[in-house]
Amino acid sequence: METQSRIVALTSRRNRQFGLTARQLNLVIEVLFITLIATGLLSWILSLNLAWIATTVHSIAGFALFATVPLKVRGPVRTGFRRRRTSRWLSAIFGVMVLAVLVIGVLHANAIWWGYGYWTGMWTHLLVGFSSIPLFLWHVASRPAKSARPKRVDVDRRSLLTTSALLAAGAGAWGTQELAQKVVGAEAGNRAGTGSHEIASFDPDNMPRMIWINDKRPKIDFATWDLRIEGRSVALDDLTAMSTPLAAWLDCTDGWRSQQNWDVVPLADLLSGASARSIMVTSATGYRRLFSRSDADGVYLCVGYDGKPLHGGHGAPVRIVAPNRRGPWWIKWVTEVELSDRPVWMQLPLPGPTLT
After folding, report:
1. Which of 6, 39, 162, 289 has the fewest CB atoms within 10 Å, measured from its CB?
2. 164 and 54 fall within a common domain
3. How far apart (Å, rounded) are the C-alpha atoms in residues 344 and 342?
């Protein structure tokens, strides 16, 4: 016990050189980790013209977390390994996973690494990040003593100043990265506020063909495809004849975006004037989303691009085009559009099991 107390005291003095005790440093890291998860999710949920706010905070928090790595290794990590608990290896795995998430995020942001096939850099970043959450919860819950857990007294003037310095370092690193990309004319300099890189704009044949989470591309037969709008069957030929071109960005949560001339028909031109709270759009896969009834003029059924039919991987024969929304709202293989009395908030913020 005396040896352990001596180690804790030594670590506290060491970290105090940077203005933080080991306990305060852990608290800062935990807050930054939670911020990264929250802002990452928000960047998916928010509209394209607001998502940049979440993405910017996400980037600054990531660089700030990078800045804590030397402090963490020099203090709590060294102390933890001296205790020789078997669980220290789980903590090490968690630390390596978080560091991998940060590195992959920087590689993606700077267009250095795109991943391999389906496992793009952004998808790998997301997968490793979300996979680390159980280890994060375990790491917090398994603190060896009450004295190691955050306390109200940890929020003092010195810790706030040091935390502010870490955030300033994160903001400075992010700003330097963005400025450098613009100055040297790097490809990453054209990255969208959501963090997505442009791919195959006005070249639909080369646009990626991604599917949300566990959806599976259905068998497609244009001749027998049954599209129903408010219960009535609508012929694809009639829909094509009504369509007009619309240039819009598809911004995928997988880290890419592409602009195409979509051949579309506004939902407002297809729906009756009946009042309703929302519009429910359903895919042949069973995947569905609710749109506000007031959005009928700005959400479209799409049958092609540049006068050509959609590719099967892009949602043929008919999909949703939802400008200013992220990829999960661009529903593919649409089979049904109906009015609903269910409010839009009665669905998960991100797609998942349908609430009934």
Report:
1. 6
2. yes
3. 6
Q: Tokens at residue 79, please?
A: 């102390």
Q: For residue range 171-214, list pLDDT tens digits in order.
A: 999 999 988 888 877 777 678 889 899 999 999 999 988 776 55
Those residues with Cβ within 8 angstroms of residue 116's Cβ, 6 or more apart along the chain or in another chain: none
Indicate the pTM of the whole model: 0.84
For the record, the structure tokens of 3 come out as 């040896």
Spell out where the chain has E strands. 115-116, 119-120, 197-198, 227-229, 232-234, 244-251, 256-266, 278-283, 288-292, 300-305, 308-309, 319-321, 334-340
Domain of 297: which CATH number?
A: 3.90.420.10
Place of tokens 């590195």: 103
Q: What is the DSSP letter of 265?
A: E
**Same domain, residue pair 183 and 207:** no
In contact, 72 and 40? CB cutoff 8 Å = no
